[in-house]
Amino acid sequence: MALAIRDVREHxxxxxxxxxxxxxxxxxAIDAAQLRYFYDHADYFRVAEIxxxxxxxLIAMREGGAYGSPNYRWFSGRYxxxxxxDRIVIANAFRRHGLGRIFYCDVISYAEVRVPLLAxxxxxxxxxxxxxxxxxxxxxxxxxxQRMGEDGPQVSLLARELPSFGYVRDTYLEHGGxxxxxxxxxxxxxxxxxxx
Length: 196
Description:
UCP028520, 27% strand, Aminopeptidase, single chain, 7-stranded mixed beta sheet, globular
């Protein structure tokens, strides 16, 4: 079994959309336009590919975006710098094989050299204790709760401090930036984005 975690490519989007919309009640369905927004604007959008098949994906956004998610806006109103995990989806055939842990290690590696906080939410309706415990094992703690819209589910808003960020900020970010190596590189700007 050959596993690769890599940035999403445009030709992956149909498979990612199908995977998202068959994930069940704990992942909100999206349409092609919403997925295109993520493709164009997400700071972290990676897929797990196993033997040529998309087995999962994780999408995360930095602070300062125009993303309309009420949970993203909640964190935006309280924290100046963060990476917000919007969604992680693993295909049914590949669940309970450690892909979630691999993605979380990868997104933590991405975030800890850029921001002091990693954020996400978990649904409390329906409550999934496996998901709650999973986040606890990665050091996430509840920092709030809210209901997503009038009739939406109650969510627990979680955050994990990234203690290595202070060292990275003081050593690199305030003195010329991160080293120019592939594993620290940002996603390339999409055609509809202006370069940063």
